[in-house]
């Protein structure tokens, strides 16, 4: 009886049938009874209407017509292998399940398990429906929770059959894989790393990766793929599975959030997060974006998911990610610069996010040398800062003085251009719009030429600032940022030349007192200088 398929209970069913006693078959014992009857050769050749025939009728008329019974029977086949496999019960159960998943949801009349929360779109669509209509409405992914009870090997075969039918879209496939991962993968990192379940977790992740749909990443969300990548790194999956995930993530990077990109670093890395992995993903994204743009132009493809809008999203994402990882004391300057430069200029039209990241890095890495601070700040283009960021940068003591001067200069250029535009608008009866823009552009060019001719030596400049601070303690009327010589230098910088200084003195004075320009050489009536009112936002 040791090798008897199904054990004593299956033998009892066969014995009762032989003695004409009533036998009760159900989804839990029919497979064992079928294997036992085959072992005992209870075929039609021995007696008409024998047990094998009765079981076959029961399977076709009841089990394979029922959704949940098909799943239960498939689960019981594992205890009687290889008999259930040789008798093709496993294959028939899989085919029954896969066929039912591809049916039109409107034709589903059997019960199924659906405990997941409705998406926002589903809730919105259901708000205007009557209560009864909500009950009978069947979602496309109605089947994913029931098959989550299968072991990984049977689950893989069922999902392979579902995909082979060709009637299930990538979104439903990904929802099924996500639900199975949530059901069986542990939540804690310690459980993932434990030796007890490490082999099982590794097999589970590799199976899910190989079952992902090949639809250019449209089906699965980037958040799910990145979570899968984090687990894959922890459990140590093979390189081919990680490579597949990286390719898919690269196509969907514009959908990711900063939290998704916070991949824990593994030894021998000393940083909190795996910066090299994120850098690799960004470079892949940029290469794919370029290649797909070429394909779109050459072949006229319209189903490509990458575009200019997605590039802008990636640029903003990386700036926010840089701000987050800048708090890591072990993050090297080279890694910060490499990741920042991985984003092209056109993907970063505004540098406010990059400025916040640089400021955070300067705040957390106080040991940077003067050369390193200049190298770090060279990543930022002060002309691309908004007014709020410029105001903050002008008062930021962590920035090199040259950067502060550049911020003040271009803020002054912006103010002058604005005043010039307003003046030209008031005289629109005599000047056309084109002439006004030309005049403002000429003034800005003149200022930029003067800026390029003036060479500021930072060491001398800093000494003068220290002298100014010392002298400011004895000042009664207000605090000055720079000594008189430096102020004269800035007056020369912000003037319009000999021919224009007198005519536009009132405009220059108005703009220098504007809160947006923050001119360090302002008069005493402007109160305390911007240099002494520097603060930081984190």
Automatic annotation (TrEMBL):
Ranges where the record places region Disordered: 421-445, 495-538
Keywords assigned by UniProt? Ubl conjugation pathway
Give the NPH3 domain ranges.
Answer: 141-414
> Is Transcription regulation set as a keyword in this record?
no
Show the Pfam families listed in the entry.
Answer: NPH3 (PF03000)
Q: Where is the composition biased (Low complexity)?
A: 506-517
Q: Name one GO biological process term.
A: protein ubiquitination
Q: Does the keyword Transmembrane helix apply?
A: no
Q: In which pathway does it act?
A: Protein modification; protein ubiquitination
Q: Hey, which family's this protein in?
A: Belongs to the NPH3 family.
What is the protein named? Answer: NPH3 domain-containing protein
Which species does the entry assign this protein to? Gossypium darwinii
């Amino acid at each position: 009886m040791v090798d008897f398929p199904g054990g004593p209970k299956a033998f009892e069913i066969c014995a009762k049938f032989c003695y004409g006693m009533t036998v009760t078959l159900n989804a839990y014992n029919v497979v064992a009874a079928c294997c036992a009857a085959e072992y005992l050769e209870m075929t039609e050749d021995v007696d008409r209407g024998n047990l094998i025939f009765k079981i076959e009728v029961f399977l076709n008329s009841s089990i394979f017509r029922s959704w949940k019974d098909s799943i239960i029977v498939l689960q019981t086949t594992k205890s009687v292998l290889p008999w259930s496999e040789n008798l093709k019960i496993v294959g028939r159960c899989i085919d029954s399940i896969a066929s039912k998943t591809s049916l039109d949801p409107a034709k589903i009349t059997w019960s199924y398990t659906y405990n997941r929360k409705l998406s926002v779109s589903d809730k919105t669509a259901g708000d205007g429906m009557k209560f009864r209509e909500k009950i009978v409405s069947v979602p496309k992914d109605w089947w994913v929770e029931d098959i989550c009870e299968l072991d990984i090997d049977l689950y893989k075969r069922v999902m392979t059959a579902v995909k082979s039918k060709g009637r299930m879209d990538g979104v439903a496939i990904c929802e099924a894989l996500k639900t199975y991962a949530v059901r069986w993968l542990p939540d804690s990192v310690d459980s993932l790393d434990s030796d007890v379940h490490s082999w099982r977790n590794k097999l589970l992740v590799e199976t899910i990766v190989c079952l992902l749909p090949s639809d250019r990443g449209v089906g699965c969300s980037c958040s799910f793929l990145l979570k899968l990548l984090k687990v894959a790194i922890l459990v140590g999956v093979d390189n081919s599975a990680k490579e597949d995930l990286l390719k898919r993530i690269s196509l969907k990077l514009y959908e990711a959030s900063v939290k998704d990109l916070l991949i824990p670093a593994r030894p021998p890395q000393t940083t909190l997060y795996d910066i090299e992995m994120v850098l690799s993903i960004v470079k892949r994204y940029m290469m794919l974006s370029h290649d797909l743009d070429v394909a779109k132009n050459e072949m006229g493809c319209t189903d490509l998911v990458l575009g200019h809008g997605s590039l802008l999203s990636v640029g903003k994402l990386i700036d926010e990610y840089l701000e987050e990882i800048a708090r890591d004391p072990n993050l090297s300057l080279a890694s910060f610069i490499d990741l920042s430069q991985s984003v092209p200029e056109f993907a970063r039209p505004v540098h406010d996010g990059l400025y916040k990241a640089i400021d955070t890095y300067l705040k957390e890495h106080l040991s940077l040398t003067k050369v390193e601070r200049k190298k770090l700040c060279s990543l930022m283009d002060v002309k691309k800062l908004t007014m709020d960021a410029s105001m903050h940068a002008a008062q930021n003591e962590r920035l090199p003085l040259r950067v502060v001067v550049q911020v003040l200069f271009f803020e002054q250029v912006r103010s002058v251009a604005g005043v010039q535009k307003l003046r030209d608008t008031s005289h629109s009866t005599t000047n056309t719009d084109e002439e006004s823009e030309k005049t403002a552009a000429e003034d800005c060019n003149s200022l930029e030429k003067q800026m390029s001719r003036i060479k500021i030596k930072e060491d001398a400049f800093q000494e003068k600032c220290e002298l100014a601070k010392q002298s400011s303690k004895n000042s009664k009327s207000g605090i000055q940022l720079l000594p008189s010589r430096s102020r004269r230098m800035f007056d020369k910088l912000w003037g319009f030349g000999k021919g224009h200084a007198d005519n536009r003195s009132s405009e220059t004075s108005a703009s220098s007192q504007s809160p947006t320009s923050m001119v360090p050489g302002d008069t005493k009536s402007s109160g305390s200088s911007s240099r002494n009112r520097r603060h930081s936002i984190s």
